[in-house]
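Pipeline run #58 for the internal structure catalog. This entry was flagged by the ingest filter as a single-chain record with no existing model, so it goes straight to prediction. Upstream metadata was stripped on purpose; only the residue string is passed forward. Reviewer on rotation: M.T. Logging verbosity set to normal.
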Amino acid sequence: MKYDPEKHHRKSIRLRGYDYASAGAYFITICTHQRQCLFGEVINSIMQLSSYGTIAATEWVRSADLRQEIELGEWIVMPNHFHGIVFIREIDEVEKKAQTVAVDKRAQMVEKRAQTVAVEKRAQTVEKRAQMVEKRAQSLAPL
């Protein structure tokens, strides 16, 4: 189904006054421009990544290597969007400096990790996660 702004009215579930830069777990959805299917396609219930989809997956994994204050949870690349859970944590300056030394080693592993992503398993569980996230979002929505 193509996105139609006349039919699809989305309300923000953001909490007023909440500092979204603070430590916590965040569910992220990133959509392609005009919801174009740029990241690949689902064939026989398996997501087949395009070159853009591979870039999205690689850069997501790389984010945790470049930013010591985040940890990645479950994530999935879909044809026209991306879902991911990111945990933002507080770290002091000493820990941050020590982790910076390890970034180069981890960056070398990023490409290898991205190539071995179990896309089939993620495609099978995306519906279950989406339902869980929707329930969570509804429980957080202002009354």
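catalog note: The mean pLDDT is 80.
catalog note: Helices lie at 51-66, 93-115, 119-140.
status: ready for reviewer M.T.
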